[in-house]
Amino acid sequence: MHYRLFWNNYKYFPYEKELALKEVEALLNPQEIYSENDVINIELSETASANEKLKKLTYFSMVESGNETIIPSQVRVEQTAGNSTNNRQATRYSAHGIHEYKGKFNPQVVKSLLNIFNVNENSNVIDPFSGSGTTLLECSLQNINAIGLDINPLAVFIANAKQIAISNPAEKIAEVGNKIIRDFHQSNKIFELPIKLTEREEYLLKWFPEETFFEIEFLRESINHNAGPLKNIFLVLLSNLIREYSLQEPADLRIRRRKSPFPEELLIDAYELSINKFVNNIRASQETTGLKVKKNKAINFDSRNLEAQEGVLDLNYFDAGITSPPYATALPYIDTQRLSLVWLGLIPPNEIMPLEGNLIGSREFKNAVKKEWQEKMLRNVSQIPESLFMYCNTLQNALSESDGFRRQAVPVLLYRYLADMMLMFKNLLPYFKKNAPYALIVGHNHTTLGGKRFDINTPKLLVEIAVAVGWIHDESVELQTYKRYGIHHKNAVNNETLIILRKP
What we know:
Layout: E1 2-7, H1 14-28, E2 32-36, E3 39-43, H2 50-55, E4 60-65, E5 68-70, H3 73-79, H4 107-116, E6 124-127, H5 134-141, E7 145-150, H6 153-166, H7 170-186, H8 199-207, H9 210-226, H10 231-242, H11 267-289, E8 297-300, E9 320-323, H12 333-336, H13 338-343, H14 352-358, H15 367-379, H16 386-398, H17 405-408, H18 410-428, E10 437-443, E11 445-449, E12 452-456, H19 458-468, E13 472-479, E14 496-502
Parallel strand pairs: 6-7, 6-9, 7-8, 9-10
Antiparallel strand pairs: 1-3, 1-4, 2-3, 4-5, 10-14, 11-12, 13-14
Helix pairs in contact: 1-4, 3-11, 4-5, 5-6, 7-9, 7-11, 9-10, 10-11, 15-18, 16-18, 18-19
Organism: Cytobacillus firmus (Bacillus firmus)
Domain DNA methylase N-4/N-6: 77-157
InterPro entries: DNA_methylase_N4/N6 (IPR002941), SAM-dependent_MTases_sf (IPR029063)
């Protein structure tokens, strides 16, 4: 039977069309596939379940067969996020837009990979660097079991709030949101500082005007009192705003004092708007996907140390893995979100920098830690592959006295990153089923040492490490001008690679 697949009107990156065709082949196994007048034509011998499979496609706007027209579910769910004109790809549908967490990757890529890997409702998926839960949410929307791991407690908090949102009716979320806003406007709002401040309060008062501090504290209490099991949804929505109303420069990744003017819009008005927008997204999405049973979750856990806690994962359990790990000399995930972390009570202020320094790819090195890793690199204590060890030494030998302290640390940082990622690859392998795929979207990096530019091909380095500890490398796909979205998009890596590994 003949089918015609039509592209959307928005501009595609080349890799998206490549993934789209891989989806068609994996889901439908067509006898023939060819392009004509920018329409993909396929011939299928098996048509009994074709319509349901065609509805799962990620990147096509519609499918025609004879007099029948099929609209993929992805089109409908994207339209719920304001993509009705179909002139751009929507990435904030369902609960994806609850927080502009730094380093998000496109949910469409996740869904496409689930299709390419033929992951179904009986499959189990893992994301060992789950961030704000893009993979978890996409799996939930497809009724696929998934678990996420992340060392950042804010990331875990956001990811699990998304799961709460899709498992509760939008009208219930709206009702609670209205109650919180009404509570704020009806209160007398007579605030006084306690006689003795907690460490948390002292820290927040350094970074918020007193009036703003009282407002976010009042809202936090109101949320805890009024929102019940939905409270984390509203805490996440507010945490997404507080940086804009702080004394921290919002556009700066680091903690630096504000120079830009404060928003003219009142915080409570911005919060109400964000609640309403989120509710509308959830409401429209649920009309397409329905309510989801809350079964997927993120866990605050380090993927380098899987054996440290029994019962977190089961051996030979996962049918696939999809993740976007940090890259070498990663941006400061914890430092950027420290206000939310402290305000939510996820970590005390004195734990911010130790946690930042413990992240894979972190650039935060205390002198003692730097010296320890310099000694490890000198003898290759972590036993990374010899060629990668030599590459780190090449960078070390390129340093000159004119290089600042951050550049001086690059070779050791790269060595530590490769050692940490090797631990992750090695420890994760036993938890995958035989022949199970593991997809990683990895950013490239570059540095200048001794006046010479070095392009650090992180994906290539990671493939070599993965193969060394037992993974099979299936393929690597360049993600041309792949864009991350959010308040830090100007600092994002625009050159990335999709690595697909497989357990033997």
